Structures are given as C-alpha cells and as structure tokens.
Records
---
Amino acid sequence: MKDKVMGRWSTYEPFFVQLGDKKVADVVITNHAKLRWTDRVSSSNNSLEEICAFLWEKLKNDSIVPYYRNEEDVYLIDDDLVVVAEFSHLEHETDLVGNPLHKMIIVTFLGRMSETMELRDLKSYYSWLRHSRRMTLIKNSRKRR
C-alpha cells in the first residue's frame, strides 16, 4: 500500500519515508502477519488497509526504531510493539538522485512488550523457544519407539 494521501502536488519525486538506511516507499503485510496482528495486537478484525495506514503513520512520525542496533529485521513501534520486517528493492522506482526505494515486508507481529515480558530480550526468548521445541521433539521420538 503506497501512501494514498499526499499533501504535495506538482512534484516529481516519489514519496518515501527514511527508516535507517532504507527509503521505504511501500508497505506489504503477509498473511501470517495479518493473523498475528489479530492474535497478538488487536482483537478487532482490522483490514489490511487499516494495518498499513497504522504502519504508515508510525513510519512518518519516526515511531519505528530498530530493536537491536546492528540488525535490521526486528523493529519496535512506540517502544512496545515488536515487528519482524524484511526489505526488498522496488523495481523501476528511485528517488531523484537515483537511489533505490524499498518495499517493507511485514513478516510477523511478535506482540507487545508490555503484555509479553519475554519479548524484552529476544535472543534469550528465541533460544528458550528452540530449546523447548527440541525437547518436545525428543519426547515425541521417545514415545514412538
């Protein structure tokens, strides 16, 4: 969803929002992310347009920051909502200087840190998750024998 409401006219530069070193000109939400939005963020069944509009407003207001300094795949919205995103280049879209514009693909919404305390340290959360899954697999393989 590209920004539908632009206050400028007679301009030749495509609209984008700077996020780190990326110039985001489009937001795409995966099916998985839509399901996670309903499960973990908002109980009301929001449409894709409403979720995209929410994300555009947060991008414009600089409310989206990287979760870690070095990594560029996990982001915090309003210091609470944890989002996993990927970026890809938009074909045939550049700014006036010729730099490529990006498409922000929302992979999933992990949830709110205020509700899920485990999200405060994602590295330990993921290691715990991998360990618990591994232990479940080991238990199931014991039962089959």
---
Amino acid sequence: MKKFEEVKSLVAALEADADKFYNKGNSAAGTRIRKGMQDLKNLAQAIRLEVQDAKNKA
C-alpha cells in the first residue's frame, strides 16, 4: 500500500508542472513531466510485480 501512496503523491506533485506546460507553454515543465511520468511508469511496474507475486503465493 505504501507504493500506491507514492503513486498518488507523484501525480499530485506533477500537477503544477502540467499546468505550467499545457497552459503557460513552459517547456522546462514538460521535461519535468516526462521525467515524472517515467518514474510513475517504473513505480507502477513495481506495484504490478508485487501484486502478481502476492497473488501467486495465495
């Protein structure tokens, strides 16, 4: 459950950069969004593996 909370926190942190990129045209914010989304992808994959492992053990 800790990793799921990290996902929620990461998405919330990216919200300000998304606003800067999409509404204000700040390209540096776009770079931060791309990095954050890559981190999100890796975290989501870790959660998927954790869930699959727990499911297989049950």
---
Amino acid sequence: MTPQQRIRLARRHAGLSQAALGAAVGVQRSAVGHWEAARGKFPSVSHLREIALITGVQFEWLATGRGNMGLSADTALDSVAAADAILVEDPLELRLLVAFRAAPTRSKAPLVEVVEQLAELRTGRTRTAATSPRA
C-alpha cells in the first residue's frame, strides 16, 4: 500500500471528506487531494502527525506502512487529550481548549495573542518577559 493510499484509507476510516481533513489540519482541500493522488506530494512530518491524530491511526503505519493501522488500547489511553481528561474542571476553560484544538494550525498563534490581549485589558496587567514567547 502506498503512502497516498494509507492517507486516503485513514481519512475514510475516520469518516472525513478531503475538505474536513484539510480544515482540521489547516490546509486547503486541494492539498489533501495532492497527498492522496497516485503521484501526489507527501505531506510534511507535522502534517502527517496531525493526520494521524485526527484520524486516530498509528503515526508509524501512516508514515511507513509498518505496524497496525489502529491505535492499541494502551496507546489510545496514553493519547487522551488533557481537555478530555478530568484535569480540566472549569467548563469555560474546557470550551477554550476544545475551540483552540479545533482551530487550523495557522490560526492558533493569533488566537493565543488575542486571548492574551483580552486578558491584559481585563486585568490591567501586561505580560512579563518570563511569560512572553517573544522575550
């Protein structure tokens, strides 16, 4: 099975259209089409990782064809997202994490900056050099 066929199989197994997978990964539908085409381009490692996470398949299987397609029970338990675990008790914090994780990759940094700016306006405190990623 080719890498392109594995990507298509993972997407279909997850019940996603090319457009839905593209939106979840943060790329256009046409990029997913290229990844699945017989002579198409291979996605970057970061995109391949996102595809594996979104579709629930083993990264190694998706990248190389080795191993099992599906996650083992232990791997599935180890990969439970923090937002889905009991660690997040505040419903608003959970909503924020779920929305952030659903956002396209290219939108995540601007979203964090907007939330930080809103927090500064509400509290009157600015970020310190220790908390700012630009410092």
---
Amino acid sequence: MKKLIGAMLACLMAGSLMAAVPEITNSTGGIKSERGSTDLATEADPAPLKNFRKDGDIYDRQYMHQPPLIPHDIRNYEVDNKVNKCLACHSFKNASAMKAPKISPTHFETRDGMTLGEVSPRRYFCLQCHVPQADAKPLVGNTFKPVEALN
C-alpha cells in the first residue's frame, strides 16, 4: 500500500512539474514547431542547406572543456566503423602536412586511462562532440554568456 501511495504521489508531482514548464507557442496559441504549419502526416519540403565556412580561423571556446568547433564544411565526410575522413587531416601522421590541428592525445585513452596506439573507440566518431558552425538564424532566443576566464 505504501508503494502504491508513493507511486501516486510521484505521478502527481511529475504532472504538476510538467504543467509548470512554459510552452513555446505561436501566434494562435498552439505549440510552435520548426515544421511550421505542416502537420506530421505531410511530407514537408526540406529546408535549404546551411552555408558553412569553407575554411577559417579556429573558433574561440565558450566554456571549459568545450570540444573545439569545426571551422570548415564537412558535408559528404564519411565517418563510420571503417572510415573516418576527419583523421585524413587531423591524425598525428597527417596533421603537419595538412596544416591541421592534431587530434588530442586524450582521444587515444580508454575510460580506464590506458593509452592505445590508435583512436579509442569511444572517441572515434568525431561528430558526436565536434560540430561545424553555420551562418544561420538562431532557432530560439539565447542569453548565453561565455565564461569570463576564456575571453
């Protein structure tokens, strides 16, 4: 009985918390969607591809331990279990010749701190953390301020 009452209280608390979260609404009062007025059953035309920099200076980091941002276009880069196009330029072997930053030594460590002779499987898929920047209008308002020590 105590478990049932506890579960019911947890549900009530979760419901009240969800009700307190403000919704992003459009002018008609409905929930705003990035799909615009297109409903889920309709196939919408895709948005045009964003313009990425061809090559550029390194982006400043905005917070501690932020993965470096990619300052160039990566469209058509292949990164899968067999191939990693990023390593063609950023590996220790190729970075100097390609004038690209070397991959961090931390990417060769296992979660137990053991150093490997190749990129650790948990760090192999670069685009999980490193992302390119597009010249695009923000989707939502942003009041983020970078860490002052990094300015």
